[in-house]
Amino acid sequence: MRLVAVLSMVALTTTGIAVAAQHDSGGRPREAARRQAAEFVHVHATTTIPPGQFRTVDVTCPAGRTVTGGGWTAQGGSEAQFVVGQSYPLDRSWNVDGRNTGTADAIVSVDAICAVGGP
Hints:
By secondary structure, the protein is mostly beta strands. It has one helix spanning 31-38, and strands at 3-4, 13-14, 40-49, 54-60, 65-75, 82-90, 93-100, 106-116. It has a single domain (3-14, 43-116), classed as Sandwich (Immunoglobulin-like), CATH 2.60.40. The protein has 1 helix and 8 strands. The two termini are 26 Å apart.
């Protein structure tokens, strides 16, 4: 079974990558830093995986952006045991394959950083 996380506009936020070191003497971001920050967006999806279930959870970059990195987190207490088989990029998405081997729901979040460019 493949679970595709739907990206909503609420999940899109700009990141402050490499902006902190690029300020003018008044503490205001330089134009280059502003442009650099606008080149990246962070996308995020969260889903619940029941005990004993395998899922591929992915989050997709918006059109015109390429995935440059990603990762995942899992929550659910000591009874939820999310075991990851793979965490990898594919096309414009970041994907996480895993199984909840515990006895409680696992709440899995997947994140990706997307850069300007690509399909």
